Amino acid sequence: MIAYSKSFIPLGFTASLIEIEGDKSRGLPAFNIVGMAAKTVSEARERVKSALHSSGFSFPTEKLTINLAPADLSKDGSYLDLAIAVNILILSGQLRQEDVNDSAFIGELSLSGELRAVRGVINLVEAAKAAGIKRLFIPVKNFTQGSLIKNINLIPISNLKELYLYLKGQIPAPRLDKNVVKNTKTDSKLPNFGQIYGQEFAKRALTIAIAGHHNILLSGPPGTGKTMLAKAALGLLPPLSASEQISVTKLHSLAGLATDIVKERPFRTPHHTSSLIALVGGGPKAEPGEISLASHGVLFLDELPEYPRSLLESLRQPLEDRQISISRIGRKLTYPADFMLIATMNPCPCGYLGDPTHTCSCSATQISHYHKKLSGPLLDRIDLFSEVGRVEISRLLNTSTTQTNVDVVKNTITDALAMQSTRYGNTSIFNASLPTPEIATKIPLSPAVKQLLDTAASSLDLSARSYFKVIKVARTIADLEASSEIKPTHLSEALSYRYQPVKNAL
Asked: Structure pTM?
């Protein structure tokens, strides 16, 4: 007798259908799982056996063989526990095969038969929907995340006994209490622009960066507010759209960082001692790294030159392609890396180069070595550079000092983003992410602006990449002013942000 059940396992940012075949034959009692099962899957034998006994079911005394197809795909994790248990219930005659047709089962079983949550449930629900699964049984604690995917019948299950009674038609479909289905909402403790005194030039640069999703580098002496400015930028970002919520929640669920819906944009701040795998992703299970977890949010790198050069160079491809590919033996996984980079740095090792109130103690060699930690190709991928100078003491805690109206800035950014969405016909494309071949048609330049840009590019020795980045930044500045075309003033301001720290520091 052969029994069949279905389940899914994550495969990078997607998932794969696993068909579970069960065979019961004569022989000494045995329970074998085959099909490239990792240790966590092989250990399901004991979990499933104990869960069945604890739930009041009998366990077959014949020889059982469970095959996980496709056999050439490595299976890891506890996703298949429930489907294996259902398969054994069919083999033992306690369930009928027709009871589980067009259904799939996901979840980890405890020894008592309770169903535990698993990681990456959105990947699994998406794959089940694509595979035409009519009913998908998932743990109750995964229901909130899974419900982000529409047009699929999700049935939350608390334990094995409840599943059995539902499949036998003895109880209705389980319903969740309203207190169970809730969204995660974290109170943000990050500063906002209204709490920062002065720094109008840096605030303007950050506003442009956020409005067009541009990368930005803030440079200035210690204590001038670079970190506070970077953290305040997150409060200006618009709310996550429905599709962005799904993407962000998928990534954080895969990493084990979220069990509910993620509704706030991520703000990831990896330390400069982080490993390469922690930053870009990988490891034995090829999990997403910080650059993927920052997708649709901000990746903040404080004191950029303190990061190892290998880490910084690994950012070059994701900054360009907005995704990262992780290769492992037999497979290649791709994760999104659509983040906005905000980085900070001091002008020199001691931090006081150019500071009017402190004397720099660094030699020219030390300053040169410090700036050479940032390669030309990496700096070429940063759209805006902004100096952050000291604020006069008299302006600090001065209630009469004019503060930035955060609501006005946010509304201006929202309007600019709406213009980009209309221009490109896609809410996921911003000025910074517009493909280079489309710039000529999507962002036309008048003859006067084109001549000014060509003259400036020749004078500043801009690379082709920087040339196009200036156009994109100028387009964002025009969007902030609700201008349908780029004017010379917009281009001139965009050029002012092409300041190179290496050239200016020596």
From this structure: 0.89
